[in-house]
Design goal:
This protein is about 40% helix and about 15% strand. With about 290 residues, it is of the alpha/beta class. The strands form 3 sheets. Strands 2-5-6-7-8-9 form a 6-stranded parallel beta sheet, with helices on both faces. A 3-stranded mixed beta sheet has the order 1-4-3, with no helix packed on it.
Length: about 290
């Protein structure tokens, strides 16, 4: 890891990335793409040393409270978080100043902050978004080698439900010729129903590849699934969006299963829920000037 000082921490949409880079090793990770201009090795985590100081300054200066978010570029619960605790301190600030919070992760380490997540959710709203890609534990260990397995993530979702914390699942990515099966989609949606998630976000049965992450992905295909890289190149060339040949039927199945299971499955509706700030304190009223 290495440290840097950031000029700011919150984006215009109130998102933050406390770390840059990741050690989870997911073979398809878009954050490896060259368009993000990462000037260091992806596994050499960049730590924003002044992030918490900047965050507190920005929260104190906000005229209205809102939902904060993290996890769009780097999983907040990489192993380094155990040592540095940047995410935990950001959560504590959100709680202190009365802001809501949502985060995206693949890690059961999120449970280490369960009491703090619950405290935020008791006052405002805290939503944990969990990515699920495959029900096959062996395949999971190949394509997402250094992160919690699907079974561990599902158990984490159950614990979050017990604590009353709302959850959303990202069904993404679905890798053509690897996990684009009816069995997999049924299994993931069943997990979502069983664990009581609020909704499932899915933009299609496939993945995206850009310069930078494409090369890494193909190297891993060569290593883990001999012959698969050539199959991808024949099917997709250098396309950005790689939809499964079964995209149509699997998306229809996905929406049907979500409807039957009582899960939200309209992306726009779920994103509106994630961004909506709530104030649950007795007698509290939200105001532009809070």
């Amino acid at each position: 890891m290495h440290f840097t000082n950031a000029k700011g921490i919150l984006s215009s949409s109130n998102g933050m990335n406390l770390y840059r880079g990741c050690t989870h090793g997911c073979i398809y990770c878009d954050s490896r793409s060259r368009c993000y201009h990462m000037e260091h090795d992806f596994e050499d985590i960049e730590v924003k040393a002044n992030a918490i100081e900047l965050l507190e300054r920005e929260l104190r200066g906000k005229r209205s409270r809102c939902m904060l978010s993290t996890g769009s570029m780097t999983d907040p619960y990489i192993p380094l978080e155990e040592e540095l605790g940047s995410v935990r301190r950001a959560l504590a600030l959100a709680h202190r100043y009365g802001f809501g919070f949502t985060l995206i992760t693949k890690s059961a380490r999120v449970l280490r902050d369960l009491e703090l997540l619950k405290a935020i959710n008791d006052d405002t709203k805290c939503v944990v978004q969990m990515t699920l890609t495959t029900c096959d534990e062996a395949l999971c260990r190949k394509i997402e080698p250094h992160v919690s397995t699907t079974r561990e993530r599902v158990e984490a979702l159950k614990e979050l439900r017990k604590a009353g914390i709302p959850t959303v699942v990202w069904l993404s990515p679905i890798l053509p010729f690897l996990n684009d099966t009816e069995e997999n989609i049924r299994g993931i949606v069943e997990h979502c129903v069983d664990t009581g998630v609020r909704g499932v976000i899915c933009f299609g049965m496939g993945l995206t590849l850009r310069d930078g992450n494409r090369e890494y992905f193909y190297r891993q295909l060569d290593r883990l699934f001999p012959g698969m890289k050539e199959r991808y190149i024949r099917a997709y060339g250098s396309r950005y969006q790689l939809l499964s040949p079964r995209n149509g039927e699997l998306m229809e199945l996905f929406h049907t299963l979500c409807e039957e299971g009582g899960l939200l499955h309209d992306n726009g509706e779920i994103f509106a829920y994630l961004s909506a700030f709530e104030d649950k304190r007795a007698g509290a009223q939200t105001s532009l000037f809070d």
